[in-house]
């Protein structure tokens, strides 16, 4: 029997709200009772005072396991390069910015020199202005060109919200420049009647990689005048382009460079990134051109108080009698309520769309008990909302109409929400880079700020709140992407050939893997060689072959029965687990039951209801080894890395009571299996190793399964991934290895680099995994160590002590340097 752990769907149910606190021997905050009366929002209490108020009351202070104080920093000014147009300098000064920070001036200098540059400084350090000033100056020069169009700039953002926000900022800053700067958003929300104007007249076009891939590049003849004059390509929040998504975007940018060269242009790339390791290396891999980095942050920073917060255990017990810790969702909702009552402007970042909805609903209910008018000042913000809903929320946040927001990472990326006093982070976001990006949303006007990481009942979160050095004493991660992934490269070669026939001269642009792929594409009758070029042969759009977000197909529309109203969308990859027939679906605080999932038409029909339960999908997974790239001995066992095929099928769902999590029943589902070819790391153990670890057949499956769960939970500490990006399978006797085996695989076709990173850091990764299990205070296993919220087998069987003994024996024989080769 195989035990599986899948990278799909988030199961986050409302936890008990009555708790029995558990005291930890950790630093305690001072007690300071809040009168729970809204304070004046114009005042800004110090972050320490805000934290003291949050920690007031019985048991609250004991939930703070660590408080980190990041001291304030003075800023360093410079002057703009003298080549910047005086009108642009005047416009910046009119906006209240007399002098640039030193890093802004350096970025402008590189841009004017025609050098591609990445600015990798902290949140609110003025990265936007660093690239905007040289861009506006160049557009102003171009406005005087005889052809009237002059220079153009293309701006890419990972989200529509960020592009819309930046368009507002550009319009405000460039207002004194008159019609010389004509910014416009061009994305899926742009009305058809406006698109022609954008193509013909806009000289600062703001879009996203999806629209560039599907809309602009395939229609490049209609964009010829824009591309011919393209001087700058701005790539904002470039650290988000990692894994499969980043690999796709890298190939989209190579297609853009190829078409620009066709029209006689060679744009300079200006990239903005959160603080990351080796930003110039990552930016160069993304764009395919050499990139200079500016990483010395010269902006001032207010004091940041960063607290680690562990919700208490409750009196209740979950699966297999495991102690139940209060969920990060419920705890964050209470903290957000308290902050709003204090008048503290706050955002709570949540991992899942469902979690954002739940936090908003709970906070609204709590606030209504204090002051009914306050309940209208908190809302949810997530992907899947309709465009007009997102815009309305963004306006309300800008104006201060909203005091609190429960948001997914859709709001993390650069949207200007200055004036916030506090950020709550419901669960570790997957990387230290993302953690600091979210924390930096508060204090954006230079004032002090509070950030609180609320731990989920999860091995990694539990490890981090009790090992703060893993967060605060280690550098942020490098960005992992692999543009040579054949599953990524092949569809982009087809798209490029459809845009312009591919020639031998183009192959160097797309990388060395082209030489092997082109004959395969020709054999598949996707490309045909005529003379010295490859041509696209089909009537279909070649761009539709590549799903750059890796979502597995077109989104599923969620439609209300009776009214036919479109509520939103769900990613295709998550549809089987989240909107299957009978699933409970949340949207803007309302609860719906899914009546039908039509996979052919990608539609889920829902009806409003108030069931007293949540739903959790259950599935089965099998895995087969296709090819072993490399393996090293670990004692008698082996550590391996290679290609695998994973077959998964959602087979049923559980109904769980909202308050207790009690299973009310299980219903069968008839959904088709899905197959994934990807990359994996796996390790095997022998009979002698099992004997040495005192593991018999009766506990072997539980020990392997527990080690698999915990290792998946800990991998994001070593690779720039989220636990939902990876999956796992454990098998007491696998048919390909003929040994007990644990697999951890990338949840994306062709791999994303995460399993490779795990292979290269295996000793440190599995050592941390063993430590996380062994140090947990539970007796037989709980969500903080070996239970998983997305286990397709209902966390059965699991054996905590067996997992510790198994990993101890495995690590005892592990070499000090178990692997060789490139570490991503």
TrEMBL record:
Residues 108-294 form the Helicase ATP-binding domain. Residues 25-76 are annotated as: Disordered. Residues 335-487 form the Helicase C-terminal domain. Keywords: ATP-binding, Helicase, Hydrolase, Nucleotide-binding. GO terms for molecular function: helicase activity. CDD domains: DEXHc_Hrq1-like, SF2_C_Hrq. It comes from the Bacteria. PANTHER family: ATP-DEPENDENT HELICASE HRQ1. This is DEAD/DEAH box helicase.
């Amino acid at each position: 029997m195989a035990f599986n752990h899948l990278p799909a769907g988030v199961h986050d149910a409302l936890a008990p709200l009555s708790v029995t606190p558990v005291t930890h021997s950790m630093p305690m905050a001072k007690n300071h009772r809040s009168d729970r009366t809204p304070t004046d929002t114009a005042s800004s209490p110090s972050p320490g005072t805000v934290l003291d108020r949050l920690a007031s009351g019985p048991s609250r202070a004991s939930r703070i396991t660590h408080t980190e104080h990041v001291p304030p920093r003075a800023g360093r000014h410079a002057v703009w390069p003298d080549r910047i147009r005086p009108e642009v300098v005047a416009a910046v000064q009119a906006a209240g910015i007399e002098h640039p920070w030193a890093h802004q001036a350096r970025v402008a200098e590189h841009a004017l020199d025609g050098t591609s540059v990445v600015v990798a400084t902290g949140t609110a350090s003025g990265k936007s202005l660093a690239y905007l000033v040289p861009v506006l100056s160049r557009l102003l020069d171009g406005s005087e060109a005889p052809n009237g169009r002059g220079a153009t700039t293309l701006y890419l953002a990972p989200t529509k919200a960020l592009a819309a926000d930046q368009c507002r900022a550009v319009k405000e800053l460039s207002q004194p420049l008159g019609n010389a700067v004509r910014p416009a958003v061009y994305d899926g929300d742009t009305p058809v009647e406006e698109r022609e104007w954008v193509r013909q007249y806009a000289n600062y076009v703001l879009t996203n990689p999806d629209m560039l891939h599907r809309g602009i590049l395939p229609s490049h003849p209609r964009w010829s005048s824009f591309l011919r004059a393209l001087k700058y390509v701005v790539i904002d929040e470039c650290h988000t382009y990692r894994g499969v998504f980043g690999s796709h975007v890298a190939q989209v940018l190579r297609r853009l460079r190829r078409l620009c060269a066709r029209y006689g242009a060679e744009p300079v790339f200006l990239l903005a990134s959160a603080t990351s390791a080796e930003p110039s290396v990552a930016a160069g891999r993304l764009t395919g051109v050499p990139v200079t980095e500016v990483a010395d942050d010269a902006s001032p920073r207010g004091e940041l108080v960063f607290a680690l917060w562990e919700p208490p255990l409750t009196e209740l017990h979950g699966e297999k009698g495991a102690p139940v810790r209060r969920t990060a969702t419920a705890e964050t909702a209470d903290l957000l309520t308290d902050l709003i009552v204090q008048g503290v402007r706050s955002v709570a970042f949540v991992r899942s769309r469902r979690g954002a909805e739940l936090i908003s609903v709970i906070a609204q209910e709590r606030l209504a008990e204090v002051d009914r008018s306050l309940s209208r000042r908190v809302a949810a913000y997530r992907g899947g909302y309709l465009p007009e809903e997102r815009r309305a929320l963004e306006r309300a946040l800008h104006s201060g109409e909203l005091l609190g927001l429960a948001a997914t990472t859709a709001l993390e990326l650069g949207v200007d929400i200055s004036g916030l006093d506090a950020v709550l982070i419901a669960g570790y976001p997957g990387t230290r880079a993302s953690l600091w990006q979210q924390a930096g949303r508060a204090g954006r006007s230079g004032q002090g700020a509070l950030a609180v990481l609320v731990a989920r009942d999860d091995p990694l979160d539990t490890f981090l709140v009790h090992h703060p050095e893993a967060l605060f004493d280690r550098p942020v991660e490098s960005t992992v992407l692999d543009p040579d992934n054949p599953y990524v490269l092949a569809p982009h070669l087809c798209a490029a050939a459809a845009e312009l026939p591919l020639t031998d001269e183009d192959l160097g642009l797309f990388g060395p893997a082209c030489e092997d792929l082109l004959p395969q594409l020709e054999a598949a009758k996707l490309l045909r060689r005529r003379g010295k070029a490859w041509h696209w042969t089909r009537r279909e759009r070649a761009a539709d072959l590549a799903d750059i977000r890796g979502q597995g197909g077109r989104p599923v529309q969620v439609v209300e029965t009776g009214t036919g109203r479109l509520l939103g969308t769900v990613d295709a990859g998550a549809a089987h687990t989240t909107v299957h027939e009978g699933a409970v679906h949340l949207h803007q605080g309302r609860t719906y039951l899914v009546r039908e999932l039509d996979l052919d038409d990608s539609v889920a029909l829902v009806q409003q209801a108030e069931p007293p339960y949540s739903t959790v999908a259950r599935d089965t997974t099998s895995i087969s080894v296709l090819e072993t790239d490399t393996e090293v001995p670990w004692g008698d066992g082996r550590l391996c890395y290679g290609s695998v095929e994973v077959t998964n099928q959602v087979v049923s769902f559980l109904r769980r009571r909202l308050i207790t999590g009690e299973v009310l029943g299980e219903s069968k589902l008839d959904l088709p299996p899905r197959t994934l070819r990807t990359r994996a790391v796996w390790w095997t153990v022998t009979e002698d190793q099992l004997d040495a670890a005192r593991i018999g057949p009766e506990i072997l499956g539980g020990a392997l399964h527990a080690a698999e769960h915990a290792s998946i939970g800990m991998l994001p500490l070593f690779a720039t991934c989220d636990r939902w990006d990876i999956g796992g399978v454990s098998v007491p006797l696998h048919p390909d290895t003929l040994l007990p085996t644990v697999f951890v695989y990338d949840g994306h076709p062709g791999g994303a680099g995460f399993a490779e990173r795990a292979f290269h850091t295996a000793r440190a990764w599995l050592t941390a995994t063993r430590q996380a299990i062994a140090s947990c205070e539970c007796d037989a296993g709980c969500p903080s160590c070996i239970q998983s919220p997305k286990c397709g087998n209902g966390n059965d069987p699991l054996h905590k002590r067996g997992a510790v003994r198994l990993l101890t024996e495995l690590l005892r024989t592990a070499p000090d340097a178990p692997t060789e080769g490139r570490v991503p």
